[in-house]
Amino acid sequence: MIPETLFAVLIRVWEYLTFWWYSPPALSNMRLKGPARDGDANALMIQFFTWEAEHPQMSWWKHFETEVPNLAEMGVTQVWLPPPNKAMRKQGQGYDAYDLWDLGEFFQKDTIATRWGTKEELVRAIAAANAHGIDVLVDAVLNHKLGGDRLEKFNATPVDPNDRLRDIGPTREIE
């Protein structure tokens, strides 16, 4: 008979290998169009935002769209954009996620647009980037849940901190 701890280790190894086998690294499967994919080793990614980034006359997505030709001319092949989702605050950068699926198309938090602009502007900017051979990556932080309007209740089961596959108590409702 296999000791319980060895069995748990074997299960974890099996889970890891199964995940690795069926889920190769995402970046290598992204079909990026830049030079690194076409044989040139000089791909260039730029982070097109900062914590305080704002444009005084237009949305950030429109600003990005107007800069796409310049970025392409400089040899940029990938652009990293901020989280495009609705934030808890009107000027939130997206890391304080309110609605991960609202990219600036629904009236929530007293605005339609996110800090960065509307969904239509984002889609147009990405299309412009793609037309210039630039791939767009967004900083999607799916586990950030700070911006809710209220506490939510859900079921949770306490587990052994050294073996998360082993329950140590009954399932109960928590906030």
UniProtKB/TrEMBL annotation:
Highest taxon in the source lineage: Eukaryota
Region (Disordered): 153-175
Sorted UniProt keywords: Sugar transport, Transport
Domain Glycosyl hydrolase family 13 catalytic: 70-154
Protein name: Glucose transporter rco-3
SUPFAM superfamilies linked: (Trans)glycosidases
Gene this protein is translated from: G4N740
Recorded family membership: Belongs to the glycosyl hydrolase 13 family.
Pfam family, one: Alpha-amylase
InterPro entries (alphabetical): GH, GH13_cat_dom
Basic and acidic residues bias: start-end ranges: 161-175
GO biological process: carbohydrate metabolic process
Organism: Ganoderma boninense
